[in-house]
Amino acid sequence: MGTNLFTWRMALLPCVLSLLVACGGGSEPPAASPQVAAADLTQQAAETLRRRASGLRVQAAALPSLELQAEQLFEFAEQQYPQLFPGRSPTRLFGALNYRYYPASGIYLGIVVGPSTEYQAEGVYLMGGPYGDKPLLVGTIGQFLDSDGDGVANAQDVAPSDPLCALAQDAYQGSCHWRSMGSAKVKILGQSGDLLYLSALGEQALVYAYDLRSGHFSARVALSGFVPTAMVYSAEQARFYMGDAQGRVHAINEAFVEIGKPFAEVKFAVNALAMAGKHLMVQDSSGLTVFDRFGIQTGSGGVFYASIDGAEWNAANSRLYYLTRGISPADVVYAELDSATGKIKGGGESPYHGDYPIMDPVRLNPAGTRLLLGSGNLYSTDTLRWAGKLPTESIADALWLNDSDTVVASRGATRVRLQRFDGTRQLVEAMDLPPGGQLLGLVRRGGDVHWLLQYGDRVQVGVFTPSDDSDKDGVPNGQDKFPLDPAAAADSDGDSHPDAWLAGRSQADSTTGLSLDAYPLDAACHAPEQGNGSVCNPSFYAPKAVPTKVLADGRGMVYLLDTQAARVYRWSASSASFLTPLVIGQPDLAGVRQGPRVFGLSPDGRRLYFGYDNGLVSWMDSAGGAERQFANVASTVGGLVAAGNFVLVQDASGAWDTHSVFDTNGVLRDSQDWNYYSTHYLWAPTQNRVYFYRSSQSPNDLHYEELDPVSGKIASKGETPYHGEHSFYGAMALSPSGARIALGQGLVLSTSDLRVLKDLKEAWLDVQWLLDGRLAALLPNGANTRVALYNANSLELEGNLLAEGEPIALSPLGGQTLAVLTRLRDGSFRMTTLQP
To answer: Residue 706: phi, psi to the nearest 5?
Structure first.
């Protein structure tokens, strides 16, 4: 309604000014009232005028002076109706009027800017030409200008200098409610249908009711007689409960009338309140006290180093879930209530004590079977055992759309990102909120998710509507490589440059600054100058930085992970050249693609596995294709190794660290904490063992875990008999027979008892075994590279091979062939084939 009113009044001036030009009619000044003349404008024309005038509007803290407003209106008239107001005429003064005269048309346009008994205050007048020789009043300046650009003319705007509101119900004493809340301590109290209740503690304690459907406030109430220390809303009881520093609990209905004075009392200041079904739980320094809806105490219990603020009630098992605070380690706990009597039956906590990150908020799914915490970790509500993790972190708030799908708001460095995950914890949609604001929370109305951000001078509200076609380009998100950009959808090589524009679209339609890929099937190039127009320059296939890790399949392919570039570079022995790289990576909370921390290669060489900082494990066909989600662990993936038909993943959750074993479908088969981080991992198929270091503790050691080949469970463990006598670090390699293991510090051990067979007294950068049992080790040789060869039986040095450049990695190609990766003086990388 505000926009229509505004467009009619903005139309008033041009209709009166332009006569036949803008509105039609006779050759004489219009006899109809200005409002009727304005109504003759089509809605489309009026909207065009509104858009044109928007550039002249100001968004100041106070209305500009009448003189400045007059100048704005003069400028608008000259720009939009040069046939009536030709040229740029100077402003002149005549008594209380500022006016401009246009000799070519003979028309005067005057605006009252001072006190006058002859003219209407702030009136707008026309004279001359077809308007006659007497000033004609056509309205007031407030009917034409919209100083704050909110679509409502100043004369009808309760806060004409503030675009946050226009209607009287949205402001108090000329200050918009959203503006007033900017500097207050604001909290979402709860929701009843379309009504959202918020508290704002500042100079006053206020409660607001905001209608999500209409987008307007329905109430603003100042609390008096007490200062609330805790508040909670019960939609079931249609009440607000508020505690104060004197230990009193106040009950206030939705008409904001207090019920009983006070409703209840506890011994000390009220610290927190939570609804537990039809009962109210009150926390003070003595513990928990339970009251029914009549204010009668029904139960009590102790609670220490915890707060029920933000707790979640689970009607399915009559438990209230909340977090411990002020004590380390933090934990997720519950209090169980007898729903009939209101007595506290008992409580419990998770079986972990610092094993997993614990942080607000706590969010319960509709069925009451899962809890989601701010760390992204999920817990089973019956046992409080860890039940998985969303591949995100730093969650400020979250909503369950159903029992499995979620929308979470995660804090990034400069902004909040909304992410929607499906039941398999796959990210299916994302949207960035305006930067700089602090999230107050997410609320749901029907299929929409409303978000509230607080800035220092305002609160901003917006709507996110979950969609399987976020950019509305007709291509579902699951098939759209650019789900937030309507201009393109296909990206065959995954390099973030589209193959082509969608039909009827161009670069001008791109909302994210996309540019077309000149080489849509080659991830190494995208700009025309990076090749000859049809083929990419091969120099782009090689890595540009020292790889994070190098793996080889033993069949002629070498894979080089570059975490920073989010690429896997590939070298083929058959072509003796680098191939087009594989594009990998996941968007961080700023939407920037981040490469994995670690990667692994399946024994058959067909799959690459990747581990990320957010706990995500993914996989990709080693020949190329899409990167797919594989599994999630509770914290940053510190290591992984493909172990036969399983994948072992290390992360820092649990006591010390945790090793999780997944089958090739991503199903968790076993998980054991009290484990270790390792810089290297090695799969030994003849023993079904994974070898790893104790890199995070001193003294370091070499350990193993033996996996059951059928179930994938960790069947046994072991370590060397040494505890400080040797250092254990560096690359690992297993002999062809599986009987010996070589380590980067120059040790060779027997795999039967993990005793040292030979200490070669020389640290190696990398090490590999040849098929004939000889050992090859990579070392620097001045500014170049040396590959030392050791006898298969005696392990004595029997020769050296040399290669140009700084040594980087040594890879087996199969049989007696090795590939040496070096960095040359010009910074380029070379792969040299050696056949000892």
So the answer is: -95, 130
What CA–CA distance (Å, rounded) separates 318 from 274? Answer: 13
How many Cα atoms within 13 Å fall on the side-chain side of residue 355? Answer: 22
Distance CA 560, CA 483 (A): 29
Q: Which run of H or E residues covers position 177?
A: helix 177-180
Positive or negative: CA dihedral 19, 21, 26, 27? positive
Q: Is 645 exposed, middle or buried (0-12, 13-18, 19+ CB in 10 A)?
A: middle
Place of tokens 């992204």: 376
The ranges of the chain with pLDDT < 50 are 1-61
What is the enclosing helix (H) or strand (E) of 5? helix 2-18
Are 498 and 482 within 8 A, CB to CB?
yes
Where would I find the beta strands (DSSP E) of 602-724? 607-611, 616-621, 628-632, 637-643, 646-651, 658-663, 668-672, 681-684, 689-693, 702-707, 714-719
What pLDDT does residue 286 have?
A: 94
| Distance of alpha carbon 834 from alpha carbon 836, whole angstroms | 6
Residue 422 exposure: Cα atoms within 13 Å on the Cβ side = 10
Q: CA geometry: angle at 706 spanning 703 and 709, to 5°?
A: 155
Cis peptide before 262 (omega within 30 of 0): yes
Cβ atoms 188, 235 nearer than 8 A: no
- Gap between the Cα atoms of 563 and 584, Å rounded: 9
SS3 content of the chain, % helix, strand, coil (to 5): 10, 40, 50
Measure the CA–CA gap between 146 and 6, rounded to whole angstroms. 8
Residue 455 three-state SS = strand
What is the C-alpha separation between 772 and 791, in angstroms, rounded?
10
What strand order describes the sheet that includes 628-632? 598-601, 607-611, 616-621, 628-632
**Token digits of residue 708:** 């059951």
Assess contact for 194 and 177: CB atoms under 8 A.
no
SS3 38: helix
What pLDDT, on a 0 to 100 scale, did the predictor assign at position 355? 82
pLDDT tens digits, 75-110: 888 888 899 899 889 999 999 999 999 999 999 999
Task: Tell me if the bond preceding 351 is cis, omega within 30° of 0.
Answer: no
Q: Before 391, cis peptide (omega within 30)?
A: no
Separation of alpha carbons 452 and 429, rounded Å: 19
Bridge-partner residues for 106, per DSSP?
none
Are 18 and 81 in contact by the 8 Å Cβ rule? The answer is yes
pLDDT tens-digit profile of 719-743? 999 988 899 999 999 999 999 999 9
Q: Cα 189–195–197 angle (5° rounding)? A: 20
Supply 580's token pair: 């087009």
Contacts 24+ apart (CB under 8 A), 467-470: 467/429, 468/428, 468/429, 470/429, 470/431
What local confidence, expressed as pLDDT, does residue 63 receive? 67
Residue with tokens 């991830």: 523
What is the reported pLDDT for 151? 83
Q: Which two tokens stand for residue 64?
A: 């500009």
Q: Which of 44, 45, 23, 46 is nearest to 34 (CA)?
A: 23
In the prediction, which pLDDT does 721 show? Answer: 96
